[in-house]
Amino acid sequence: MKLSGTRNPSAFFLYHLMWEAIDWIYPPYCGGCGQFGNRWCEHCQSSVESLPVEICPICGNPQPGSCVCHRCSDQPPAFRQLRSALVFKGSVRNAIHRLKYDRDMGLGESLSRHLIDLVKGLNWPLDQVISVPLSNAHLLERGYNQSNLLARPLALALQIPFIPQAIKRTRETRSQVGLSAKERDINVRDAFWANANLVKNKTVVVIDDVTTTGSTIRECASALHAAGALSVYGLTLARAVLQDFSDHPAGEAQHADGATASHLPIF
Length: 267
Fold this sequence. Notes:
Blueprint: H1 10-25, H2 42-47, H3 70-74, E1 81-87, H4 90-101, H5 107-122, E2 128-131, H6 136-142, H7 146-158, E3 167-169, H8 181-188, E4 192-194, H9 196-199, E5 203-211, H10 215-226, E6 231-239
Parallel strand pairs: 1-6, 2-5, 5-6
Antiparallel strand pairs: 3-4
Helix pairs in contact: 1-7, 5-7
């Protein structure tokens, strides 16, 4: 997969070569379709769907006329902008599920290239890359944070520091599956703490795999601002596009591809 505008900075290129070497020893299967020989095959790459052009300029949710959505107008988030590279459906959904639950960690490097292409076109003045932290229970169960696997190669490509220890969860939270937007907000409220020694006067981007209502990155941004961060941006690989951003349970909301959020492995 070609990186638009990327000159293969040495650290990123070495990271890529590491995964290529692992692929040579342990030939991969495509995370999207299961085809043998590639982590992320050309067919799945070409089948991905980008977000519509008309989105809320703040949270990035599809919005007719690119107007500020009601939620951002009524409850302005602490982040400047939240953007997602792809729609959470089809091969993207399959690949993220494998990345999260099947220990297909090499997919992170492949999928991160969609983030790299996106962020290079946004021209955000970034100082640091940060990832949304897992709870201790989920980290112990899974053994790794899938958001780190997307954030690290992005930081290498942008040639800025990746600081995963800059933000931590202060408490366990329940799964966001089936919760309304309001319930999601309550569920993650005050669930994060940021290290002022690492983020003060810095412009940071927070990376996650998927966003639905943006509640998690909203709370991360609030914690980062409380710690003195200058500006906060949010970036996710995919967005579960909701036609209805109301207080109905997200598990019952209809998605653009006809699927319901109750089928999503999130978060």
